[in-house]
Structure formats: C-alpha cells, structure tokens
Design goal:
- The protein is 29% helix and 5% strand.
- Strands 1-2 form a two-stranded parallel sheet.
- By secondary structure, it is mainly alpha-helical.
- The chain has one domain.
- Helix 1 links the parallel strand 1 and strand 2.
Length: 76
C-alpha cells in the first residue's frame, strides 16, 4: 500500500486488516520519483490516502497504527 495524498481514501479499500500481510510505503514531502512509483506499481502496490488533509509521515504512522488496532478497516 503506497500512501500518497492523491490516492483513493484507504477507508474504502478492501483487503486491509491487522491480520493481513499489508505493507505501507510512505514518502517524504517531495514524494517518490517517477521510477520509484513505477517500480511499486510493478510490485503490486496500490495507492491510498488517509484523507484530504496533508499529513507528516510520522502522523500517518500513528493514524495507521490506530486504524489497524481498532479494526477501522473492517466493514460495519
């Protein structure tokens, strides 16, 4: 899972759970180079965002940990 500001909202995506084998890739304020994004795409990484607000990478990690711990990805 490649976290990118212009990706689809992660809360609406399937296949993510604390029991799964999901890897989250975060960039910095400059983003990934085009070659790096192509490599992630070939590896099967899906783009996702944590919402419309721009966040620092360390805040994204805290939010992802909370979402995984609280099963926020589970439907209903």
């Amino acid at each position: 899972m490649y976290l990118k500001e212009d990706g689809p909202d992660i809360r609406g995506m399937e296949g993510i759970s604390s029991a799964g084998k999901t890897v989250f890739i975060l960039g910095d304020h400059t983003g990934m180079a085009e070659e790096e994004e192509e490599l992630m795409g070939r590896a099967g990484a899906r783009k996702a965002s944590l919402g419309e607000t721009s966040l620092h990478a360390d805040h994204c990690i805290v939010i992802l940990n909370w979402m995984l711990d609280s099963n926020a990805f589970m439907p209903g």
